[in-house]
Write a structure and sequence with these properties.
The chain has 458 residues and is α/β, with parallel strands linked by helices. Helices cover 40% and strands 12% of the residues. Helix 5 links the parallel strand 3 and strand 4. The chain is globular. It binds pyridoxal-5'-phosphate.
């Protein structure tokens, strides 16, 4: 008999989960204005709101916390992190920052100015925010297959090079400070980018003399997908794939709350000493002195260890397999999910699942509330609520896809937790045609409304 796969770690410390009843949850979600962001964490049984900063640290990482050097300048923790960053990514220069958006703030303060264009594959929302805040434009050049939940493409995060070329030719290279590649493509559903696509992108960027920056929050999961799916990489190690990936970039930004398995942290790394010197000024202004940049010494230590653990092949395979396991279980329960499955989350097609709920009544939010009430599972709506109103006409925007995202924290939940989540959706599936009404908005902020919106049942 072939032995089954197991997670390459075991539990040493446990955190209790507060098991509530459907009746308690129905009251709590009503009090929360039917907004899952307003719930207290002890009102949630399985929290799949995000994979950001929610991972479980290892005993090595917790030991490193005790070894932190809190010196203002030149701490040994800084040198430990610098050596890990260089060893893993190959970049010689690096700046610590407190999280991913801080890396964007520092680097874009230097590089992006009013009227600029930053093309790439789907930009993450804070990334887009930091570009638009500087009165520049982020243009999405992701391949069309990304928008089709059932299209079977192994690298749905890829850049469409013809779209990109049109953007460059139309606007001229002078307006484009850099091209931004996000690995994995979070907004398209944690979908990977192939090495072939990255190499061709690098060639195109070089031919126009435009720098290439990688938004690298899930670079290790991207490398694992390349190993599993791309011809010629079956026998490469993850660290070889990661090195090759970053050899194609001029600089990277990192939210360490994802693939580096820490609760807070980030960094910028780059090839050019000149870029490093210039970015250092903004780092000192916004984050802190260049040898800590918004992080405690102990947190830099934990991050250095997390970078190694997050790029371990056995861990990455078990990580992707857990996401895949949940996706397959949901499919068996009759739920339509985005395929192929992404690296950090499963996306449920809510309009396909709750067919009777009209689009204006927010089917994905309705499904999120059903899943919470049924089993205390907290996901997040990626649909019309999140898409907000058109800034000019103030009309509700209806994106092509109305999705419920179930993001899986790293090393936190077991297979039985995944079985539980699938059972919750199987139960909803049995009665889904009786769910005919959704929700309407009673309170909303002028922007980013999904965080604070108040709803009531139609
Ligand atoms: C999370 C994330 C960011 C922002 O990072 P924070 O640590 O949340 O500030 C940027 N880009 C991508 C792709 C992300 O997933």
């Amino acid at each position: 008999m072939k032995l089954p796969y197991i997670e390459p770690y075991k539990t040493k410390v446990v955190e209790p989960v507060n098991l509530s009843t459907p009746k308690e949850r129905a009251a709590w979600i009503r009090e929360a204005g039917y907004n899952l962001f307003n719930l207290r964490s002890d009102q949630v049984i399985i929290d799949l709101l995000t994979d950001s900063g929610t991972g479980a640290m290892s005993d090595t990482q917790w030991s490193e916390i005790m070894l932190g050097d809190e010196s203002y300048a030149g701490a040994s923790s800084y040198y430990k992190l610098k050596s890990a960053v260089t060893d893993i990514t190959g970049f010689e220069f690096f700046l610590p920052v407190h999280q991913g958006r801080a890396a964007e703030n520092v680097l874009f303060s230097l590089l992006v100015k009013e009227g600029d264009i930053v093309p790439g594959n789907s930009h993450f929302d804070t990334t887009k925010g930091h570009i638009e805040f500087r009165k520049a434009l982020a243009i999405d050049c992701t391949i069309d297959e990304a928008g089709d939940t059932s299209a079977n493409h192994p690298f749905k995060g890829n850049v469409d090079l013809r779209k990109l070329e049109r953007v460059i030719d139309k606007n001229g290279t002078g307006k484009i400070p850099f091209i931004l590649l996000t690995i994995t493509n979070n907004t398209a559903g944690g979908q990977p980018v192939s090495m072939k696509n990255m190499r061709e992108l690098k060639e195109m960027a070089d031919s126009y003399g435009i720098p290439l920056v990688f938004d690298s929050a899930r670079f290790a999961e991207n490398a694992a997908f390349i190993k599993m799916r791309e011809k010629g990489y079956e026998n490469s190690s993850i660290s070889e794939i990661v090195r090759e990936t970053f050899s194609l970039a001029d600089a990277m930004t990192m939210s360490s709350k994802k693939d580096a398995i820490v609760n807070m942290g980030g960094f910028i790394a780059m090839k050019s000493e000149e870029l490093y010197n210039k970015a250092s000024i903004f780092n000192i202004m916004f984050e802190g002195y260049i040898t800590y940049g918004g992080m405690s010494g102990r947190d830099m230590n934990a991050l250095a260890a997390g970078l190694y653990e997050g790029t371990e092949e056995r861990y990455l395979i078990s990580r992707l397999r857990q996401v895949e396991y949940l996706g397959s279980k949901l499919k068996e329960a009759g739920v339509t999910v985005q395929e192929p499955f992404g690296g950090h989350a499963i996306f449920i097609d809510a309009t396909g699942f709750l067919r009777e709920v009209p689009r204006e009544q927010f089917p994905a939010q309705t499904l999120a509330i059903e899943a919470y009430t049924e089993g205390g599972v907290r996901g997040v709506e990626i649909g019309a609520l999140l898409a907000d109103r058109d800034p000019v006409t103030r009309k509700n925007r209806y994106p092509k896809l109305e999705l419920l995202r179930l993001a899986i924290p790293r090393r936190v939940y077991s297979s039985s937790h995944m079985d539980y989540v699938a059972a919750v959706f199987a139960n909803i599936s049995e009665r889904r045609d009786s769910i005919k009404k959704g929700f309407r908005i009673v309170k909303e902020a002028p922007i980013m409304r999904h965080f604070t919106v108040g709803l009531e049942r139609v």
